[in-house]
Amino acid sequence: MLSDFLSNNRESLIVRARAKVLQRRVPLPTDYELQHGVPLFLNQLIETLQMEGKLERPLPEMGPDAVHHAKDLFKQGFTVGQVVHDYGDLCQAVTELAEELKAKITTDEFHTLNRCLDDVTAEAVTEYGRQRELEASNAETERLGTFAHELRNLIQAAVLSFQMLRRGTVGVSGSTGNAHERTLRQLCDLIDRTLAEVRLESKIQQDVRFPLSPLIDEVAFPANLEARNRGVELVVVPPEGPLEVEADRHLLASAISNILQNAFKFTHRDGRVSLRTLAHGDRILIEVEDECGGLPPGKADELFRPFSQRATDRSGLGLGLAISRRAVEQSGGSVRVRDLPGKGCVFTIDFPLAQ
User: Fold this and answer.
1) What is the enclosing helix (H) or strand (E) of 313?
2) Residues 335, 328: contact at Cβ < 8 Å?
């Protein structure tokens, strides 16, 4: 029987299959795949053939066992490409060794081998797709729930402050009025950030050529109001000359606004935030320098991770900088941060100068 042939020549088949995996260029093989993946695939195949031999009839499919194996493989870090290619390499190793040893394997048994490999590959691909869809669905549900939670909190805060102002017991220019204004601004920021994320996810992008000076003025006006509200000074250094870029204007404006809001949030009261635009060779650099006190060593890249928050009050979704980087990169630019130890940070948006 074919299952006996595989069991009796198990070690030889593993050596052959590993050699074929090592010759593969795409996807590149991993040590774990060579040490554990190939024996696992062979054991699964032997079990399936033995089960068919006991039933004395073909199994309609590899069913739950294949799905279970596929789940385990993906949990262990295998990609769908590795699974598909490894099963194919194993099939070739079995066929070659059977021919060399002139093993008495019938045509029907070879058909069974190929069918089992086809079934397990199909199950693996199907399970991989199902897991990806489930992960995407869970992530979308979590993101929507977080957005709705923050939106509800801001609206509740706005309603409460408005009710106090309407009673006339507190003045509009007092702390309650300031809190009401701050809440409305946070609502605007949340909605603007969400709209930018929707544009990114749906690939709604309109790259056009435009001068930077009007865009900087457009962003600086509401940013200056936000800075005053937080007790921070905003210094704007306008572009020198008619600098132009080619990008999605809405996404670039949103990226600059998000970086400025982050700077205001972490700059100490009476501190300074600078927004400057300059040409550097054939590049345009938009820099936002804050006075956050600097970053802990090795923490610069973490700032751009989704749901990464530095605020002690854990306010916000921690998405502003992540969306900013995606928005800029989608239009062909880049975002980086430079730490100024003991002082602050400099966030730089780097775009090619429109020729």
Assistant:
1) none
2) yes
Instruction: Name residue, tokens 């399936």.
Output: 48
* Measured distance CA(98)–CA(103) in Å, rounded: 5
How many other C-beta atoms lie within 10 A of the C-beta of residue 15?
12
Provide the β-strand partners of residue 6: none
Q: Strand pairing of 334-340 and 344-352? A: antiparallel
For domain 205-352, give its CATH number from 3.90.1180.10, 1.10.3430.10, 3.30.565.10, 3.10.290.10: 3.30.565.10
Q: One-letter amino acid identity for 305?
A: R
Pairing of strands 233-237, 272-280: parallel
Q: What is the mean pLDDT of residues 122-132?
A: 67
pLDDT for position 347: 93
Please give the CATH number for the structural domain made up of 2-137. Answer: 1.10.490.70
To the nearest 10°, report the CA torsion of 293, 297, 300, 301: -160
| Rounded CA separation 23/33 (Å) | 13
311 pLDDT tier (thresholds 50, 70, 90): very low
Phi-psi region of 269 (alpha: psi -120 to 50; beta: other; left: phi over 0): beta
pLDDT at site 128: 66
Q: Length of the chain, please? A: 355
Task: Answer whether residue 282 shows pLDDT above 70.
Answer: yes
Query: Above pLDDT 90, what percent of the chain?
Result: 11
Does pTM top 0.70 for this prediction? no
